[in-house]
Design goal:
heterodimer; A: mainly alpha; 80% helix; B: alpha/beta; Rossmann fold; six-stranded mixed beta sheet; 40% helix; 24% strand
Chain lengths: 231, 245
Amino acid sequence: MLARMIEEAPAFFGYYNLIFLFQALLGTFLLSAVGCVVGGLAGFGLAVVRRTEGPRLLPARLIALLFIEAFRRIPFLVTLMLTFFVFQFADIDLPLFWVAVVSVCLIASAFIAEIVRSGLDSVHRNQWDTAAAMNMGYLMMLRLVIVPQAWKVILPPAFSFFILFIKDTALASQIGVMELTYAGKVLNNKGFSAGLVFGSILLLYFALSYPLTRLGAWMEARLASSRDRKT
Amino acid sequence: MHHLEIERLSAAYGKQPVLQDVSLGVDKGEIVSLIGPSGSGKSTLLRVLVGLLPPSAGAVKLDGQSIDYKSRPHVKAARDRFAIVFQQYNLFQNMTALGNVTVAPIKVKGRPTREVEAEARALLAKVGLAEKLNAYPDQLSGGQQQRVAIARALALRPEILLLDEVTSALDPELVGEVLDAIRLLAADGMTMFIVSHEMGFVREVSARVAFMADGRVVEVGPPRQIFDRPEEARTREFVSRILRH
């Protein structure tokens, strides 16, 4: 098998295949990156809305809750199809890639919202009460007191979600979006050996997710470290 | 007219009444203490005053002006005038001692950083923590944390300082240092409303003592009345049980 792979290699790593793989990598990268960034920010926002109190914001709270609970429960593939058909039904002519981007953002927001919620809940009630008694408003209290203490509960599961999430973007191929897994299938069908094709795909996935792991470790060290003890 | 006037105040956790018809007044510069068995509503009363638990009936008046705890601006105004120190210190774990003391004056009240920091240093020095400005709460003993919490409350320049069982969570050998800090404030003429189980201390600093049981104020009077000649049977029973050991 190895002999066959070596024999195929020059043809496989030909100009057009490399362009093709690069485009696929870009597809997966964009889906993941937009999903992580939008999902991270929107998820944070949803969790913050969900944690509000008082009757005035009750509708917003209900919408956030409904959104989170729905998109955490629907399988990724179904969300993808649903988004696809909603756009079709609404007669909005969006490229398939953007349909995938939208569904990826929906899912990431819901999952991150739940992770952030558990992080906010992990900060002891008395920290919230004390900040309130000092007249801090909700957003100020989150920014200065609660979120800095919640990072250590939020970051590890958030980044392991992101890693899982990169792999899940492969499902976008089901509605015809070009990304790494899809590219692998195409090249395999062209007759290149599975070892060579999926070996390369594997390395490319690794190249995407490893820096993310490093980023997670860096953020944890910065935001959630147990401080240097001078004593 | 008292500076702080609590009139027939009631409050409940869900359907469980925790305060019933509580009336009490505190004058400027006066120290009033609340004693009573656990669950008698002492701490709850302080939580109501700072707007952490809405009252179900009655009134709280500052200089004769009633505070409407349903109105955000009213609660904010009340919180500007009270500062509370909690039993569990509740220091912000992500900030140093200095950060804890300065955060609200700078961020909430918008006072200049330099001025606030100078004042915070002085306050921390006053409670004996000049060396611990940059220590985080988990690097401090309970007594030190509670003294930071007192400095933090003072930095808010409250009209009335509320102390909620501030020595109850401390190891016995650390109680003295916290009480000493409070004695300093008493000497400065700070108006204080104190919930405490330290009977010797209560007797020493208070102008008046209120005994609470089952969410009601049973008896109010000068320390000598409450501790030596209580008029109510419940007070007598509580005081004799406390002073026996």
